[in-house]
Each structure stands twice: as structure tokens, then as C-alpha cells.
Amino acid sequence: MADVLQDRAAIVSGPAKRMWSDTAAVRYFNQAEQMFARKTYCIVDSSSAFCTITLVDGTSEYALDSSILQVLNVRMSDNGVDMTRATHEKISMAVNTGALVTPGYPWVWTTDEGVRKLRVYPVPDATAALNTLKIRVIRMPSVALTLSALTAEPQIPVEHHLSLCDWVAYRALTTQDVDGSNRKEAMNFRAEFMSSIKDARADYKRLYQPPGMVTFGGWGNG
After folding, report:
1. What would the pLDDT profile of 201-216 be if each residue is shown by its tens digit?
2. What is the DSSP string of 155-210?
3. Which of 78, 86, 102, 146 has its CB 3.0 to 4.6 Å from that of 108, i.e. a possible disulfide?
4. Domain boundary assignment for the chain
């Protein structure tokens, strides 16, 4: 942070003192990383412990970890093919028409059943419950930076680490002990941070957007 702020901040009045504590800096960095991850969807994970869900005989709904922003894919542990994503409406229609009523091997899933809930259908039977669900997700940072590990790195991709300093500088330069003349510069740091988020969000949107489907033999492909 010192490399970003240099000598730009001045105390308004009073005796000389350290302008920003390590506690404040760590808090600002954590806030910046949380914001960056939430707005850009830049952390993809399939290996954390919460990416494996234990199935239970007769249970179709499972709690998701609080750090998960979006579920990308779900598959059964004994199957290399992803399950089909559905909606609450489509599952309800299938149940009402007599399909997916009998417990068995789940092959569809949805996350619109409730907040941080994953629903699978058919309801797992005893045989299916011998497996686990493997999920790939977009998530928030799961471990915060702390004073006891000042050399730890943020969990967002390394190419965005320096951008976090812009938010930290913005927060630091808007403290009430800082000369008012630095407020304008603080807003410049904020603008840089928000611009980085905008660019990163566009990049990750392109990464996760499925490619266009090409169908051979249909209309216009004869």
C-alpha cells in the first residue's frame, strides 16, 4: 500500500502519527477482494471440500456453502457426464405428469428452489446415495486475509491483485484524518478500481458464456 500512496496523504492537524494501521489495511484489502470476486465472478472452484456433496437416501435438497455465488455444473461421482440443469417449474411439471416421482438415480438439478439450495431429481434412492455430487462453482474468497499472515495472497487470480490496491488507497485517502485535498485523488483510485472490475467482468463473462451451437443438416445447413 505504501507504494501506491507514497507521501500523498497528510494529517490535517495534530501530532505526527502512523496514518493507516495494519488492521485497517487488511480490512480494506478484504473488502476489495470480496467486491472484486462478487462483481466479476473470477473464482471458479471444483476442488474445495464444499464442492463434494454427500447424497442422502430420500433427500432431494442440499445446502450450498455460503461462499458460492453460482453453480456451473453438477455430476454424480460415478458418472463423467454432467447432469442436466432444470428449473423448479420444469421439475414440478415432470412430477405432476408422473415422471421423476419414483426415487432413483438423479439426473437433473436446479438451484432456484431456495437460497443456497441445490435440488436434484429424481430423489436419490439407497443405491444412488452411495455416490456423491461433484459441483463446479463460482465463489467468493473462502479465507480472509489476516494480520497473522501478512504474506498470504488473495484468492482472486494473480493478475488482479494490484487492482485491489486502488480500492485500499481510495478507502485510506477518505479517512477523516486525511487532508481534504486528497479526496479528489481518492476518487481517482476508486474509478481505477471500478474500471478494473468492469474489464474483468467482461473477460469472465466471455469465458463462461457457452459457445454457439452449430447444427448440421437442419434449416440453412442443407
Report:
1. 999 988 776 555 444 4
2. SS-GGGHHHHHHHHHHHHHTSTTB-GGGHHHHHHHHHHHHHHHHHHHHHHHHHHSP
3. 86
4. 2-42+143-208, 44-139
